[in-house]
Specification:
Elements lengths: L1 E4 L5 H11 L4 E2 L3 E3 L9 H10 L3 E4 L6 E3 L5 E5 L2 E4 L3
Antiparallel strand pairs: 1-3, 1-4, 2-3, 5-6, 6-7
Helix pairs in contact: 1-2
């Protein structure tokens, strides 16, 4: 799963995400990649967007899918979680 922002989220939004999902496996400061899937209440993204004061998207990723970060770094999903492409 990834949580994505247009700009770097503020500390309140980062704290909220950490409480909900733990530490992100990888981040470029705007996108946050998490291993595993936790149950998410529908109001979560709205609350997070209000805290961050910007739009937020959440993406679910399947095995083999690649996510390109804002800095061009790519990660793909394995059964065990996110892995850096070429790393």
């Amino acid at each position: 799963m990834s949580i994505n922002f247009n700009d770097t989220p503020n500390p309140l939004a980062k704290e909220f995400m950490e409480k909900m999902f733990g530490q992100a496996k990888f981040t470029d400061g705007k996108s946050f990649l998490y291993d595993g899937m936790k149950e998410i209440e529908s109001v979560f993204i709205g609350e997070l967007a209000n805290m961050a004061k910007q739009p937020v998207t959440m993406e679910l990723h399947g095995e083999g899918e690649i996510k390109t970060m804002s800095d061009g770094t790519q990660y793909y999903v394995t059964r065990r979680g996110w892995v850096k492409v070429g790393g």
